[in-house]
Every structure is written in C-alpha cells, then in structure tokens.
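Render this sequence as a predicted structure.
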Amino acid sequence: MTANGLSVYDGARFLNYGVDDGLASPIVNDILELSGDSLLIATNTGTLNTWVRGTIKTFPTKNGLCPVINKFYRGKDNIIYVVSDQGLYRFEKNVFIPLNLNDKTGNTVRAFDEIVEIGNCLLLKSITPTPGFSDLLLVNKQSLQSAPFPVKGYVSCVLAVKEEQLLLVIANHKILSLDLNAAELGILKFKKLPPRFRSLAGLKLFKIVIDRFHNLWGFTNNSVVRLKQDGSVQTYDKTNGLDVNNIKSVVVDKENVLWIITDGSGILKLVNRNIELQSPDISAIYGDSTGKTWMLGSSGEILYCADKNVIQRWRLNSTVNYGSLGMRKKSLILFDALSIYETETVKEPGRLSLRKIYSGIDPINHSRAEIGDNDNIYIPGKILTVIHTRNNVTRLKMPNYVDQVSLDDHQQLWAVSRFGDLLCYKINQQNSPEPLTLLFTDKLTIREPRSLAMDKTGKLWIGTRYSGLYCFEYKDKKMVLQRHWSVADGLTDNFIYYLSCDKNNVIWAGTQGGLDKISCSGNVVESITRNNNIYQVIHKIIVGKDNNVWAMGVGGIIRVTDDNVIARNYQPQLQIIRMRSGDKNLGLLPERTSLPSETRELTIDVAAPSFIDEKRVRFSYLLNGNDKGQWSLPTPEASFRFINLQPAKYTLHIRADFPVGHYAAQDLVYQFTILPPWWQTWWFRTSLVIISLIVVRLMIKAYYQRKLQKQKIIFEREQAIQQERTRIAMEMHDDLGSGLTAIRYLAGGLVSNSLPSIKEKAAKIETSAKQLVDNMNDIIWTIKSDNNSLADILGYIRKQAADMLENVGIDYQFDFPKDPGNFILTNDQKRNLLLISKEAVHNVIKHSQATMVRVTARQNEKYLHLGFSDNGKGMDHGDTFHSGNGLKNMRQRTAQINGNIEIINDRGTTVMVTIRLA
C-alpha cells in the first residue's frame, strides 16, 4: 500500500495498480482480504474499491455513504469494523453504520487510525488524543462506553500475548505491560513485565510482533531484536548484515517470513531467521559434545567459551595466527599456518598454556584437518599427515594434492585428489604399525575436486573447482554417479570449498558465493546466505553436537541454529494471476472460458506465492489442444506465451517445484476454448447443410420437373404421332383399302368372263391386289399404337403365319405361352418382329419343300425366343445369300431391335430369333 497506488507481489513479479486502473485515489490506506481472489481497498477518499481476480472496481454501498477509511478490521464474530477520520463504523450488508463514541468529558471522538479487538472490547488508536491521556481508547463493542489509556504520550504499537495474558503497549518508545484478562473486560490495569521481556526495556522501540513460533520481535529505528522463548536475544543491525534505517513497520506472513517496511530503503525480508552473524573479531569456532561453543579471537591471543548465556575468556600464552579449533579427549587443539598446539586441561578463566605437538616446514592445511574418534589428527595435502595420540607422525604420499578428507561411521577415511583419484582407507587400531590400510581406489571423471563428505547413508559427496557438486554411491566395487548439481540447480556458486553432513543427513556446502543446504533426498538446494542478502566465501563448516552449523567466511562466522523457523502448516498454492492477448490485459478469466476466434497469441502469468528463495521456484507447462503437447523445461520464468493458436479446446497443465524441502510440487489444470470463426461454427455449418439440402432438393425437384416436362412433351409428341399414324392407317384402310378391294373384285369378274389372254392378266391383277391388301393390313397393324402388347403381337404373328401356310397347304403347329404377361414392345420391335416372322414363313413356303412347320414362342422376365422350324430339305446358305436378301434383311431387322438371330440346319431348318423384353 503506497502513496502511488497498490502493488501486489506474488513472488514472481510486482503488479501495480493506480488511478488509471480504477483506483479512486493513488493513496492506499488499507486493504482487507475477503477471499483468495478478492480484496476491499480503502483509498484516501470517500470511495470504496475492490480488487477481484486482478481487476479494480468501485464498490457501491446501498446508501452511498463511505467514510475516508484509515483501517479495516474483521472481528472474531466476522463483523467488519473500520476506523476513519469521521469515527468508528461497522460494515454490514453493504452499509457503513456509524458508531458514535464519546470520551469522559462528553466530547465526540472521531479520528482513528488503528483498531485491535481484545475480548469484548475494541482498542482504538486516536489521531487526536484525549487531553491528559494517550491516544488509546478502549471501547465496549455493545455499550460503546470507552476508557482512555492512562498514560500520556504517543502510542505506536499494541500487542496481545495470550500465552502469558499480557497486553504489551509501546508508548513513547517504551514497552509497558497490562493485564489482558482485565482489558478484555474493559479495564486497563498495569501488570509487571515478565522477566523474559525485560531485555527489551532499555530499547527505544516503536513496534513489536510475535511470529508463528512465538518469538517476539522488537524494532527500533535501525535494528531488529529477536527475543526467543528461552529469553535469549539476537540483534540484527549493521554489525551483522542488516544495514537499514528508518524502519516503519513489519509484517509476519503465513510462511513465518518477516517483512520489514522502511522509509527510503524499500522492503526487506528475513527468511532463515535461525541465522546469526557472529562478531567478525572471531577467527575460529568449535562446538564440543557438552554443548559449549569455543571461539578463538581474530588476534589469536584470546579464547572464548560460550555456555548458554555465559561467556568466559582465557588469554593464551602463545599467539595462534589464522587458526582453527578442534578437540580430542578433553583438550583443545589449535592450528595455525605451521604448527599445531594442544591446551592444558581447561579450568577457570584466566591464562591458558599451549603445548606445541607438531611443527612443519610447509604450510599446514589447518582449516581442513580432521580429528577422528581415535583422537588421531588427519591433515590433507600432497602428503596425508597422521598425528597419533602420542604425537608421533605418519606420512602417506597421495597421488596428487588432496584438499579435504572425510571420516565415515565405519572407521574409514576417504580422500580425493585434484585429478580425481579416489582413495578409501581403513582406520586401524592404535597399536597397529600403520594407522591406515588402503581398501580400494577409483578414478573419477570429474574436474578438479576440492572437497568431499560422506553422508549417513554411505553416499559420497564431492565438490569441485568449476563443476559444482557430485553425489556418488559405492556399488560393485566402483563409484556410481547418482546426481550432479550446479548453479542452474540452485547452488550459489560452482566452486565448492568445503562440505559437511549434519545429524539429519543434510549436506552443507561452503561455496565461493555463500552457504548452501542440500536436503536429505538431494532434491532441494536451499541457499541459506543468499536468502538473507549475505554474499561471502565460506571456507569451513563445523556441525556442533547440538546440530547447530557454524560456517566460517571471509566476513565473519555464520551460525545456523537447528530451529524450525518456517511454518510447516502452509503450502503455497499455484495459481494463474493474469492473462493477456497481445497488448490487451484480459485480467483473470474463469476456467473453461471462451476466447474470440481472432485470438492467436496468449500470455498466461502464473505464481506460487512462496517468499522463501522465490526466485528459484521452477515452473513448467504442458498444453494440449490441436495436438498432443510436451512438458516444457522447468524455468524460473512465471509467464508462458503461446503463439499461433488455432480454434480448438485447450487444456493447460502447469507445475511448480519449490526450493523448500517440505513444500510439495503443485499442479494446476486450466481449460479454455478459442472459438472458431463464424463460418466454422456448428450453427453455420448446420445452416449451410440445411440450405444445401434445400438447394439440392429444389435442384432435384427442378430437374425432375424439367424431365417430366420433357417427357410430357415427348409423350404429347408421340401421342400426336400415334394419332397421326392412326389417322393415316384409317385413311389408308378407308381409301386405299376400298380401292384395292374394288380392283380385286373387278379383276375377279374379268377372270370369269374374259378371253384366256385377258383372264391371265386379270388373275395377276387379282393376285397383286390381294397381296397389296394384305401388305397394307400389315402396315396398318404395325402403325397403330394400340397393338403393342406381347399378347397382341404373338396373336397377330399366329394369324399371319396360319393364313400364309393354309393358302399353300402346309400343316402347321403353334406352341405359344397361354399367358405372355403384360410386356409392352416398342413400335420398332413390333414392326421388325412381324416382318421377320413373315419373312421366315415366306422362306419356308418358297424354298423348304416342307410339309410341316412348327412355330414356338418362349419368354422369361428378360427375353423372348421366337422360333420357326420346318421338316424341309434345309437351307444352302451360299445360294441363299447370292440369290436373295431374305436372310440378310432378317439379320438387319434383328440388329435394329438389339436382338439375335440363329439359323440351324438339322433335318430341316430352324430360325430362332431372341429379343430383349426389358
């Protein structure tokens, strides 16, 4: 909440909202969380704003009244109270209800800027204090009777400590204590400050808070003081890394992260508050098995011992330069550049004598010396130096320079050279002639090892000069790589100076950039120093018997206590913060939303609000839509941009992995749809199909109407033709028939009465006239369209054949079907079939010399078989084809009606004609 608007920090980015985004005023006084995605916002105006799913809106009250709100407060009964320049209000059912307050003199008290609920009372901080009293007012929620705080001056903070029934008040920068039980009843009663809070009495405080592990934090203008439950005090100021002035306020969040608000220096946060920066005047430190902490002053002349809150000191009889500390038996071992010293038995503080137990020509790798359970001292280097309990020395030559050795729980010593030579020794008993026995060696393919440590499960951890950290496991008589870490995996630097393993099997790595912590599973790297803005080289790590970790760096000593400082009941929730399409901010759209068809690019901002090393939260995604997608590589980038999106239904899977060991990975599924353009929508396609069907139906209807019209025209034309044929046939029958018949009868009369020469001519005329009449009758019969049924045609063929054969005295036989069916032949079929049958009978009469003719007709659903068989002399095809056109005409006529004719000579002649009926 700033004077320039509202800023929302989600761990990945700041989202800033101002007047242009909908705020009534750029000055934000307070906010109240209503739900996970909505806030009430009080600006320095009489207008109430809301923040809902990333969008600022104006909240209208029912009566239009909204005071200038200074502070929101949600009571235990879920009633919302607000304090303002106009007084105290209760906010119910979208209405601000004024609660009028009067002091003992009857004056109305209006201007408030703070509110705290205490039992059945509200403790209000007034901007204009009551004369003679401080600016606190205790008000009963039901009766609204008030009692002023009986101390003159400025009150900056009020804190209820329920565990001890205290109401702590910072008035005039001093801490005061009241009875909380009495305050809940509306009575302000002072109470003696308990002993554990008395260390705060001399501080010029303006704010106190309690974190989620019941530590009390006090704030001065430029320092922060932590008061633990056991009464121990830790101060954070310029001397140990907290270089800040003008501290104004503080907030403890759900992760127990401490946020410090300053005037001019922005916002600071303290995450691993179990870190303590010791005085830079200490050059070496060691924690013994009794819980005491031994420290060597940077001058090399003073030895300190801290036992709980008591610090003792001894002056050494010799100066130890660039020293380090250890312990064997009950004596301290001190190392400097060329010598090793052992103290006498440590007694009361005073003067302490040192005895030199080793001196070398080459500089000693004093910060890397290890003391085993057998009290032998092991110093790495080009030569592995072993100093026995009796101070006799054994030297073992190494393949190359060894920077650090590690002692495991199986009485084994591990060493690795800078060229990757790995050696494992068995530590022998004190009375053995050799202190170490080589068990096995291996050659590791890693670049320039510098440090190593063996964890509680038997895994070997090796730090390198350039390549980060490796973990190996011994299998089948060789070392097998399990995992590799680098800066990309969370290490502060790839140069690992020192490694150590604590009692919880956590690996601590001292790097060129700071102190890192690798979880038991190895899945999480937590940067201890980077989270607290500390950057320095860590060259040695010591794990005390109480599992506290001491890291020695160039800027002093860092102590990491084995305390729980992170709230375990909190789990960050992965969420979508904002969606954008091009330059357009879409806000936070609901799931299964539909986007316009022109959407081709979409940017989705996500967050998983954790503020413990939040820059190392890793996000990945999988987008399924038109095709199956693949998971992206994890990245700290919390914005995903999708381009070339096509209309489809999409399912977006998002995953967040945290650098904090006890935070489980979070998954989120979000579904959205990009609508197709209108011409690809189902309703358009359905309409198009319906219209197409209608058009096709109309076209088919039009086609059949045209076809029917054409058929009608053809029918009418054929009907006209048939009518014309019938007319012609009737006229031929009436005119030509009657004329030919008259000629025939006249010729017959001449035959009976004329001379022989005339009789012969008259007989020919009579015969010709008769043939013409018969031919004319045939033509007339074929022309008429009402004789086209198969039954009519077969009947006519039968009549014609019988007439022709009877005239010449040839016997005949017909084998026709009794019911030929309802088959209708065309005029061409009728005419040609009649002429073919007439020609066949004519040929029998003229050429066969037969005495018997058999005419057959066979038919099925498709074909008609018409046969003419005689018992004559048969047929000579050659003569017939040369002498006449009868057979030729029969073949041509058969072809015209797509039929087939077959002539068989077998004891006579058979002519078989086949035509298709349908």
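Summary. The CA atoms of residues 428 and 434 lie 7 Å apart. The first strand starts at residue 6 and ends at 9.
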